[in-house]
Amino acid sequence: KVKSNNLDVKITESELETEEKGMEEESARESDSNILDVSSDYPREKHISIQRHLADLEKLADLKEDEKKPCPLCPEEKFKACYSHKLHRHLQNLHWKVSVEFEGYRMCICHLPCRPVKPNLVGDQTFSKMGAHYHCIICSATITRRTDMIGHINRHVNKGETESRFITVPAPKSHEVLKESATDVQVLPNYSTPHKTDSYFNPKMKLNRQLIFCALAVLAEERKPIECLDAFGATGIMGLQWAKHLRSSVKVTINDCNEKSVTMIQENCHLNKMKVKLNTKEDDNDEAMGDGEENTDTIEVTKMDANVIMHLRSFDFIHLDPFGTSVNYLDSAFKNVRNFGIVSLTSTDISSLYAKAQHVALRHYGCNIVRTEYYKELAARIVIAAVTRAAARCNKGIEVLLAVALEHFVLVVVRVLRGPSPADDSAKKIRYLIHCQWCEERIFQKEGNMVEENPYQQLPCDCHGSMPGKTAVVLGPLWSGAVFNPGFLRRMLFEAVQYGLDEAQPLLKTLVCEAECTTSKHFSTHSPYDENKQEECGVYIKTPNTSAESYLVHGKRKSDEVIWNAAKRHKPESSAEHPAFYYNIHRHSIKGMNMPKLNKFLNYLSEAGYRVSRTHFDPMGVRTNAPLAQFKTILMKYSTPTYAGGQAEGPVHVPEGVQAEQAQAAADGKAEDAEFLEDGKSGVTAAAFMKDYPTHCAAE
């Protein structure tokens, strides 16, 4: 018996040793397999917890009605063998319902001892400490939490690693081809997620790309060829559109600091049958790009930081579209931009510009802002002020050609004027704004350094005298000049019609009306110029009908192309100044009154002798040079009471002569309102009802 016992002990010890060796070999194999999973591409067998259907998971358990079966994903110590109906509920509720889905597969939760156990745990503690986990379908990772597993899968997708090494079926294509403006681009599956992929492409920015293309097309008509830079290429869609449509008029350079984005830009160039010139040295630039015929469809792709390439080279057109604010690149952009060149920038940090994160606006732009009714134009003027300061530091002035603020971005396009005098003139247009928080009245502070005793006197309203406490705030510094150039916008509209950019045409028409401050305008798309030369930025610029000798040579204009106006420093008359900001008609409506239609209200303001137009910043906004008090007076004059009681003895005091105007408005198209008012005269008035109201209450 002792010998047999000793033999049994020896057998058990040998079995334990062999089991320990087997466990060590398995762990070594698992570690080797983990290393192979990172580098190998061959498919291997998936884990049993990864199934397509619940029935496949039940097949592993081999369910039978008369026999007890254990759970295939749980150890026996955790879940004992049971009959089929109980095991079915266990698999469905514990494993299947909390699974993570990916490409038709379900990664069910697993309770098997797959994860390594801490070495200080022995005995029964190992089973209690072995928590549930998931097996990744793409790599060999085991993750405990479901939310972490979902994030882990998303990271694989963002990196383009969607090919599962556990699945033997062919994986779907990892790249998708999109088409915009006759240009094909290759993007990753999650191309519309910023900061999650190397090549970000936003289809909602199509209008932005069309506006920038029109601005570049106008500049290309002034001088040829021009060197243009897309500083943040991503997929290269914008630079490809420039080169594909403008052809030999432009020399396109697409830059990006990310290596994967540069690779994708090269692939997109080949996809659109464009030649690629990669990482060319500055010394060999003239030799490589010397022949115009050979490099008609050649795009230069560079891998540099945006600040570096703008410091090293000079361009006629620069576009900045970083993720968020672009203030970090303004100094470099204005460092070497050529005279009369154009700098366009797209700012997508709308949370700070639209006064949702005021501390961020103060940090990035050095500007104090609050939420107002004209917050979109306020955002555009904040960006222009930052551009002006950056240009002035480089002894350059600016002329604002276009400023657009929509839901997703703020676009600013400026023309660069070299010299300290234009820089001083532009810097003088940066002022502070006094804004009344009660009535939304606003006015720019007067020029000068003298401190006023009572700044509230500058406001046209009298809210400070009638309201307690402080009623106004100082916003800024902001750009106080015009934010549109009517001549440039008309030429952009002409280019949009020429190239068939349908989405940009309605917005450009609205911008032309807003720039000229008119309600309606006839657009002539065949001849955008009234004369052979047009005045912009204080200079006369010849139209495309001039001779070809007026084109750009080596980045400088010839003397016969640009003729400085002798009276370029003559300031325009006050009547011709563009009205700053706008009023929202709903914000200033009178309670208990029906407002007139917006187009009719614009006509009423125009008949009163004021300049008026609609604005793209706000669908219900009115841009006018009328004071707010006169704006409200005309609005109240042509509004009709909502209820009959308001006409007889009303809380709304209607001035004299308003009834005649209301009758005329009713005759024009509001007959039903006139009948409603006539019936209200014979009805019970509000004052009579309130007089008898206590009697009715007592009776009840």
TrEMBL record:
Q: Does the keyword tRNA-binding apply?
A: yes
Q: Which reaction does it catalyse?
A: guanosine(27) in tRNA(Tyr) + 2 S-adenosyl-L-methionine = N(2)-dimethylguanosine(27) in tRNA(Tyr) + 2 S-adenosyl-L-homocysteine + 2 H(+)
Q: Which terms are listed as keywords in the entry?
A: Isopeptide bond, Metal-binding, Methyltransferase, Nucleus, Phosphoprotein, RNA-binding, S-adenosyl-L-methionine, Transferase, tRNA processing, tRNA-binding, Ubl conjugation, Zinc, Zinc-finger
Q: Where is the C2H2-type domain?
A: 136-156
Location within or outside the cell: Nucleus, Nucleolus
Show the InterPro entries listed in the entry. Answer: SAM-dependent_MTases_sf, Trm1, tRNA_met_Trm1_C, Znf_C2H2_type
Some GO term, biological process aspect, for this entry: which one? tRNA N2-guanine methylation
Instruction: Identify the SUPFAM superfamilies for this entry.
Output: S-adenosyl-L-methionine-dependent methyltransferases
Region of interest: Disordered: 1-37
Q: Where are the transmembrane segments?
A: none
Q: Which GO terms describe its molecular function?
A: tRNA (guanine) methyltransferase activity; tRNA binding; zinc ion binding
The domain of life is: Eukaryota
Q: What is this protein called?
A: tRNA (guanine(27)-N(2))-dimethyltransferase
